[in-house]
Each structure stands twice: as structure tokens, then as C-alpha cells.
Amino acid sequence: MANRILIVDDAAFMRMMIRDILSKNGFEVVGEAQDGSQAIEKFKELRPDLITMDITMPEMDGIAALKEIKKVDANAKVIMCSAMGQQAMVIDAIQAGAKDFIVKPFQADRVVEAINKTLGV
User: Fold this and answer.
1) Closest CA to 49 of 7, 8, 3, 18
2) Would the keyword Phosphoprotein be found if you checked this record's keyword annotation (predicted)?
3) Which residues, 6 or more positions from 84, have their beta carbon under 8 angstroms from its beta carbon?
4) How far apart are CA 39 and CA 65, in angstroms?
5) What is the pLDDT of residues 38-90, one digit of tens each?
6) Which helix (H) or strand (E) holds 113?
């Protein structure tokens, strides 16, 4: 069975790029969210194996959403996505429980590598 992944990013273009990379590599995208509060709801509803989470989003950012998701499920696997120059935020994300991070613009092999490593594939 394919690993089930939830994509969280406020930019539809970024979600489309990640979805494309994942589906080409045999992952199942079970849902998408465009902000942190949607991500929490979708996580509770879908129980994905892994979440790719943008850090900078309106309403609720990725780090706040990560902390809330970890309260729901301490074992949730989250990979943060950030643009260049957000090292401090990446450190905050790792401290909050993110398993890895990928830098935008995405390189398909790096996305797949991070997901496989996090899922222990």
C-alpha cells in the first residue's frame, strides 16, 4: 500500500509541484491544506503517514500547526518546507518535532529522499 501524504502550503502552485513529485514516485496524496488550521483538521480527519508542511502561511504558520498536530499524535511525521534564508525557523521546527526539512525551490530527488528517510523506507 502506498504511503499516504498530506500536503500543506498556502501556494497552490507549490502544492501542485509537491503532488506531482509524490505521485510520480508512488506516494498517495490523501489531502491538501492551505494553512495551519486546515492542516490540523485534515490531519485529524485523514490520519496521513506523513505531512509536508510549509513554514510561512497566513492564519496559522507551519510551526504552530506542527505543535498542535504533535499534541494530537506525538508520533506524527512532519517534514517542513521553507524558502532559503529561514534557518532560524527550520531550527524552531526541528525543536518542535519536525523530522526533516526541504528547501524551496524543490528538487524532486531531495523531496523523495527526505520522505523515504522519515518513513524508514
Assistant:
1) 3
2) yes
3) 103, 104
4) 7
5) 999 999 999 999 999 999 999 999 999 999 999 999 999 999 998 866 678 88
6) helix 108-119
